[in-house]
């Protein structure tokens, strides 16, 4: 579901792509995925629908490509030299991503839509979920190489454990992460991951 390559003399202008991307995010946050339309995005971006179809084949492809790109920019996996530093910095970026003014409205709607549309769920996992998990695996592997985590660490469980508390608190419970919460969570994750085998 990657961005389409233009044919013939068509050239994708970055300013147009940026306007469309912003329009997609605004429409998703205001209207939700089910009511998202190519027409509304084109109108908001100030372009013709053909500009969208030169980039993406469908509404689903457009929406997920924009969400994946946005999420990739927001969620970074740092290399601070220590597992504690990496975990704490990762929790910061995940929290910023999930509390972003637009994305905090997009995420719950998208999760609900994925429950109704399994095909959408598969696409979201491939384009948005898997790349973030792969980057976090790199962080965990570095910690194993430094001797901070056991070599037999269950990486899949560790990945779920790192992301779940912030998601549950911010998205499901809609509760802010008060001062000190991420520090305490980091310490708890360190103890859990270090003893996991």
TrEMBL record:
Pfam family, one: TetR_C_11
Cited InterPro entries: Homeodomain-like_sf, HTH-type_TetR-like_transc_reg, HTH_TetR, Tet_transcr_reg_TetR-rel_C_sf, TetR_C
Record's keyword terms, sorted: DNA-binding, Transcription, Transcription regulation
Top-rank taxon: Bacteria
DNA-binding annotation, residue ranges on this chain: 37-56
PROSITE patterns: HTH_TETR_2
Domain HTH tetR-type: 14-74
UniProt-recorded name of the protein: TetR/AcrR family transcriptional regulator
Biological source species: Nonomuraea insulae
Taxon lineage: Bacteria, Bacillati, Actinomycetota, Actinomycetes, Streptosporangiales
